[in-house]
Amino acid sequence: MRIWVDADACPLPIKEILYRAAERAEIELTLVANKPLGTPRSRFIRAIQVPKGFDVADNRIAQEVAEGDLVVTADIPLAAEVIARGGHALNPRGELYSPENIRERLAMRNFMDELRSAGVDTGGPAPFGQADRQAFANQLDRLIAKERRAGDAA
Question: What is the mean pLDDT of residues 60-73?
């Protein structure tokens, strides 16, 4: 398993959790963004800078992701693509996207886009907090442990 991060909008506390997890579990972590990223020096962590543009980072991740990889993203269409390719998609708030819930998330995203286009104020996401960090860390630990068990069984 490799971990890919849609890093342009990923909160710093989540990146820090990922850095520690990559080192601890010795898993390749790749952050993809359209701006330079400062990452810790590690043989497990790398950053890829892509050109600025709509969905350029998302498209790069979608091209590179392999079955069993994990992608950290809040982007619903990217999560859907990852799942279609047999990967795992995890929201920075700790929500694991699945084949069972991704269609609903896409429909809700599209509905909210239509409301905003019609001038309806839909608000924004709740502030990112400690509970979100904990939910993400717990879900990440579960996924890594699951992959380790699958690797040991193989």
Answer: 96
